[in-house]
Please model this.
Amino acid sequence: MATIINADTSDGLKLTSDTSGQIDFQSAGSTKATIDTSGNLKFDSGFGSVGTAYGVRAWVSFNGTGTVAILNSGNVSSITDNAVGKYTVNFTTAMPDDDYSVSGTAQDTTSGSGTSAPSVTMKDDTSSITTSALIIDVVTGNGAAFMDSTFVSVQIIR
Model:
């Protein structure tokens, strides 16, 4: 059982509760979202079942050329320009551990470079990921060289 908040189609909002610590949000008696006793948010996004949501813990888009400038971000306090194509993403609030997933994209700013789209990568060692920061590299599409980009986007999921 759980505490249930139900938007009933005939009688309006109904509230039933117990001491389980779980909260279910329902529409017409069908569970659409749950907050379980561990604090996990679970919801049904039209796939037919309620599943745990894994949120983006931090994200940033920035101009990596010249003086590096954050264009927009969430939970990112700053970007450090370490060298051509090498950046540190500093978190406002630390991650709970360093077991997060990283995804990123970059724009090719060289005209007629003859290479495919650049890649956002991480160093080959564990020092590139910590709870307070992440070191990323932007490399040419063929991986032959580091490059600065006018648009870099990085998402951290945990």
In short: The chain is about 0% helix and 50% strand. The radius of gyration is 22 Å. The chain has a mean pLDDT of 86. Residues 56-157 form one domain.
